[in-house]
Amino acid sequence: MTQTHETPIALHELPPVTAWLSDMDGVLVKENRALPGAQQFLNALEENNVPFLVLTNNSIFTNRDLSARLERSGLHVPEERIWTSANATASFLSQQSPESTAFVIGEAGLTTALHGAGYVMTDQDPEYVVLGETRTYDFNALTRAIRLIEGGAKFIATNPDVTGPSDEGTLPATGSIAAMVQSATGKRPYFIGKPNPVMIRAGLNKIGVHSENAAMVGDRMDTDIQAGVEAGLRTHLVLSGSTSLDQIENFPFRPFGIHEGIGELIELVEAAH
Fold first, then answer.
1. Which of 11, 53, 79, 241 has a beta carbon 3.0–4.6 Å from 67's, enabling a disulfide?
2. At which of 157, 191, 225 does a domain end?
3. Rg of the chain over CA atoms, in angstroms?
4. Residue 125 known to be catalytic
């Protein structure tokens, strides 16, 4: 099943799609297993020299770590083709205040990205408090973050996801911890990850592509598709992850195309070249 909704612009009047952004979980992999058609889709992009990025709101892992994890799932994605909320956060902060300072709560994915952007990690009068994903939220670190924000540090969070999956069940994620800090300080964080189109636009800048020539593939209406719509991309929803067909009408926006899985998009990649 492939559905493309009608638009005021005829399909032949739209500029060709010359680059693709794809969400990771629910689109390419699920529970550490490659989804049907995922590697073939990636192969089609490579064989046709199409620029692409694989996106994730997860800020725990470095790009190299994620590339290795995908390889174990049976997918070959070079680390330079991965774009995380940590990468987007580092890009955003380096534009806002180059080579500044931050108190960071997060794992290697976030600290590595910020170091790469020239940021200094400190708990002494930092310009920013940056909250990311971690499996070991520390009470003392959170207390320090709250006091720094009360003292004037700007509050940034990598992504708004309130929960995350694990083999044992639901885990609290960045959005939940950010809500606690917001409640304590009265200061709302600025979230960088999806659905903020800032993450999408920064990714497009990385690969040198304009939004009108790019497409976004995702499995969630409230993050992937919303971010793509707000960034001006053609959006494609796959039903292999979080959003089911009957849930689409719950949203005030629609994807450009609806597909059972990523494999149905291969012909679109090849047709454009």
1. 79
2. 191
3. 19
4. no
